[in-house]
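TL;DR need structure tokens for one chain.
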Amino acid sequence: FWLKWLEVRVRHHFLSRVVVTRHRGLCASLTVAMADQAEKELQRLRRLPENKICPNCQKKDTLVGFSAVCWQFKTFVCGECKSAHQSFSHRCKSVSMSNWTMAEVVQLDERRGGGNRLA
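>> reply
TL;DR here they are.
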């Protein structure tokens, strides 16, 4: 009984980021393969040249790209513009400190209407 309860709690807690596998009735391992794949794709999108220019203030980031995403517009923004967006109650997510699902990362792709080129 408690194993099933633990399994449900773990799945609920990680919101399908973690896949629970069972071996002989025990939780054998927790894998984050989907999270790793989403993280790789997010970093790839972050490093695109058009996503290294803030669509609001035109500030350029020459290293790895901006560390925040304005979720309403699906754009990568600099730290100052992130604060401005949050003051307008726009949801902003951190690239490094937030949990990302593959569905969210796919929405940031230019082919799905995201990214800084269209902004």
